[in-house]
Amino acid sequence: MRRRLAVLGLLGLLAAGAAFFSRAPAPEAAGMRLPEPYAGLERALARGDRAALRALSREPSYAAVLAARALAEDGALSAPERVRWARFVLAEEGEGARLWAAAVLERAGEAEAAARLYRAELLKPAAVAGLVRLAEGGSQEAVAGLLAARRYEEALAYARDPLLKGRALLGLGRAEEALSYLEAD
């Protein structure tokens, strides 16, 4: 992981240095090129070459993760394949990729899995917004996430499960009303 971050940092420094020294020749003109497999990744992305991206995903470098990210976001691929690539990225990058993976899973129709990932990122406004979208679509896992985020009004609006309705009402301070839902369960 450190090596991957170091390579990304180095690539970022190279790009920033080139922009800062605008009078300097372009890296290509100075004989500087991206090392493989990053040059191959750049070519594959420019051409939209899915086969090359799939091959790069097997590389023992961070280029594999970047290729998998591109495949996960490719709307032309089937939802199950995009989900598989998102899970690959999540396995490689861990919690740093949860919010990104949740959005990919949401777009692929994997509402419950997306809600679990959003729920793990409750301190981020984008995660709460994702939970609201999923709850609007009927995800009770997202409603549970809204309860965890103390967004009781939204949870109550979308809850179908009596226990979830009761918990939302309790959160709103409406204990008497909540009892009828909690006792029914």
**Topology, number of strands:** 0
Biggest sheet record: none
Distance between the termini: 47 Å
Low-confidence stretches: 5-11, 16-22
- Rounded mean pLDDT is 87
Task: Supply Rg.
Answer: 22 Å
Describe what this molecule looks like in 3D.
With 185 residues, this protein is mainly alpha-helical. 70% of the residues lie in helices and 0% in strands. The protein contains twelve helices and no strands. α2 (38-47) runs antiparallel to α3, α5 (79-93) runs antiparallel to α6 (98-107) and α9 runs antiparallel to α10. Mean pLDDT is 87; it is low at 5-11 and 16-22.
List keywords for this structure.
single chain; 185 residues; mainly alpha
Q: What is the structure about, briefly put?
A:
The protein contains 12 helices and no strands.
Lay out the secondary structure.
Elements: H1 2-20, H2 38-47, H3 50-56, H4 62-72, H5 79-93, H6 98-107, H7 111-119, H8 125-136, H9 140-148, H10 152-158, H11 162-171, H12 175-184
Helix pairs in contact: 2-3, 3-4, 4-5, 5-6, 6-7, 6-8, 7-8, 7-9, 8-9, 9-10, 9-11, 10-11, 11-12
